Automatic annotation (TrEMBL):
One of its GO terms (molecular function) is isomerase activity. InterPro entries: 6-blade_b-propeller_TolB-like, NHL2_NHL_rpt_dom, Thioredoxin-like_fold, Thioredoxin-like_sf, Thioredoxin_domain. Residues 1-142 form the Thioredoxin domain. CDD domains: NHL-2_like. Gene3D superfamilies: Glutaredoxin (3.40.30.10), TolB, C-terminal domain (2.120.10.30). The keyword Lyase does not apply. It comes from Allokutzneria albata. This is Thiol-disulfide isomerase or thioredoxin. Keywords: Isomerase.
């Protein structure tokens, strides 16, 4: 089909110019539909970097930012995110999801490839499609070079001026044994140690350039969480702090005495499938976002944002394991191994509870140990598509994409309510939520220093003390909000859900070790699905949708393994995508629901 024109509020990374598809005839155009809250979208940004470099003279990548949360529709917040994540291509600001709807996109992230004559030739949802894109791009280049319709040269990207600040998009902070404040300076790919005021730099650990080197000249890639080990454990393992080195998919150990860094868990490869338990240096991790020492679990708990699970790292044995979660994105309480999480990004621990900021469900949750093991509970939060700024009883309170937590001296929990720009307080005794401060620029972490809350104001590039001692909390009677993404109308009764996946050129489905595909489907509320829930090996499923339930969410997880066709030692790859599809049940709704993971939906054509 002919690619629809790109329309939105404005453009970033173009020097102020608008970009039209007609101006890009002769180029291969890759549209990346993303939103900056989405961990899978951030993975794709990193997957695309080498592709953009490899095909720099023929490929134009355009990010189409179609926001999920209200805060993401703020043009200044988007501008900050483009810098934060080092997006080096033009970005279309699509706050009303107009271009999203023109391209019939159903999930973040989605990639759409447009050929030099302006036709859509490939669609891929989710992550893990880098090699497939390479092969399709090479085919498109060869075809249009032969036709004479390929034009080489620079694209429309214009880099913005580089800013100068001591910290750049800091993420989390902890207090060290000598009273300083150690900050994960994510935008500078390093750790910054500040004095107790949080204003003066004592030293920097890390080169400041994206990398993964160990030793006394280390490098990080967008570090986030920090966990201080108990002294007796630190003495035995030889390091004091565990760092969630997010984009490197690693845990790093830091010796504070001299700043020496070592890799303590992860391979550097992103987990996509397979083992999650074993020797730490042999198991893949995926975007560890925060870490905290919690004795009831017996080690360092890891918010594994990349696959919506909670991990556990034992510094003494060096082993990692899955502590909670199934990899399905959602909000479900109960036994830890069966619970659903959604991009957990903040942790805090007291002797009895592990507190979690579950960002994509805008939820505050906690884990406790009981007679039958660990169980998961939700204090605040309603699901993937409901958020807001509302105080009062926890059952009706609302947050918006919180990223950080801290325990206050009175036993309550301070919540960095990131996309509301607020510091909130949850009191476990009264089960109520209140607001301590507002107008904080994307608070993402906090630490108590001398009884005072020090907040990492990430988008302001500094530490702040927005809650003066003795300040009383106040109540905000804000309105509830929902994601503006339109629900998909589906019919009650029998419908066919089909995940479309076509192996890229030169590959075939890998059937050497059994079925090469997997499909898992659940629903919120569970009663929405009369039949069809659970796991199976095919990429299509007959569902029976309940009468009388007006709306809900279908949670779909799909995987497909493919390998090189003509190779003595074929390379195999795994494509994976999680969909949370909001649906509206209506008699005129779809009886075939296609979700494109890779390729084109021929029936739609």
């Amino acid at each position: 089909m002919r690619a629809p024109e790109l329309t939105g509020r404005g453009w970033l990374n173009t020097g102020g110019a608008d970009v039209e598809l007609a101006e890009l005839r002769g180029k291969v155009v890759l549209l990346d539909f993303w939103t900056f809250c989405c961990i899978n979208c951030l993975h794709v940004l990193d997957e695309l970097r080498p592709i953009e470099e490899e095909f720099a003279d023929v490929l134009v990548t355009i990010g189409v930012h179609s926001p999920k949360f209200t805060h993401e529709a703020d043009p200044e917040a988007l501008r900050a995110a483009v810098e934060r994540y080092e997006v080096h291509h033009p970005v279309l600001d699509d706050p009303e999801l107009g271009t999203w709807q023109q391209y019939a996109v159903r999930a973040w992230p989605t990639l759409v490839l447009v050929d030099p004559e302006g036709y859509v030739v490939h669609v891929a949802a989710g992550e893990g499609h880098a090699e497939a894109l390479r092969r399709v791009i090479r085919e498109v280049i060869a075809e249009h070079e032969a036709k004479g319709t390929l034009h080489r040269g620079d694209g429309p990207y214009v880099p913005p001026p580089a800013p100068e600040t001591v910290l750049r998009f800091p993420a989390k902070a902890i207090r060290t044994p000598n009273g300083t404040i150690l900050v994960a300076d994510s935008g500078r790919h390093s750790l910054a140690e500040l004095d107790e005021t949080g204003e003066h730099l004592v030293r920097r650990i890390g080169s400041g350039v994206r990398g993964r080197e160990d030793g006394l000249a280390p490098a990080f890639s967008e570090p986030n969480g920090l966990a201080l080990l108990p002294p007796e454990v630190a003495e035995r393992v030889g390091y004091d702090v565990v760092v969630a080195d997010t984009v490197n998919h690693l845990l790093r150990g830091v010796r504070l005495a001299d700043g020496r860094v070592s890799t303590v868990a992860g391979t550097g490869n992103q987990w996509r499938d397979g083992e999650t338990d074993g020797p730490g240096l042999e198991v893949d991790l995926t975007s560890p976002w925060d870490v905290v020492w919690w004795p009831p679990a017996g080690g360092v708990v890891v918010a594994m944002a990349g696959n919506h699970t909670i991990g556990l790292f034992d510094p003494l044995s060096g082993n990692v394991s899955r502590f909670a979660g199934t990899t399905v994105e959602g909000l479900r309480d109960g036994a830890a191994e069966q619970a659903f999480f959604a991009q957990t990004s903040g942790l805090a621990a007291d002797p009895e509870r592990l507190w979690l900021a579950d960002s994509e469900t805008s939820a505050l949750r906690w884990i406790a140990k009981g007679d039958n093991g660990f169980t998961v509970h939700t204090a605040v939060g309603e699901g993937l598509f409901d958020f807001g700024h509302r105080d009062g009883p926890a059952k009706q309170a609302l947050l918006q994409h919180p990223l950080g937590l801290a325990l206050l001296p009175d036993g309550s929990v301070a919540i960095c309510d990131t996309y509301n720009g607020a510091i909130r307080r949850y009191d476990p005794v009264t089960d109520e939520v209140s607001t301590l401060a507002t107008d904080v620029a994307e608070p993402s972490g906090a630490v108590v220093v001398g009884g005072e809350l020090v907040v990492v104001a990430s988008a302001a590039h500094r530490l702040e003390r927005p809650v003066p001692p003795g300040l009383s909390a106040r109540l905000v009677a804000g309105a509830a909000q929902q994601v503006r993404r339109l629900p998909t109308g589906i019919a009650p009764g029998e419908i066919d859900l089909v995940v479309v996946f076509t192996p890229p050129p030169g590959e075939k489905l890998d059937e050497r070790y059994g079925p090469p595909t997997r499909l898992e489907i659940t629903a919120s509320p569970p009663e929405l699905l009369v039949e069809g829930s659970g796991s199976g090996t095919g990429l299509s499923r007959r569902l029976v949708i309940a009468e009388g339930i007006p709306s809900g969410v279908l949670h779909v997880v799909a995987q497909a393994a493919s390998c090189d066709v003509d190779a003595e030692h074929p390379v195999c790859r795994l494509a994976r995508q999680d969909w949370g599809v909001p649906v509206r049940v209506e008699q005129s709704g779809l009886r075939r629901l296609p979700l494109v993971m890779g390729g084109m939906d021929e029936q739609a054509e």
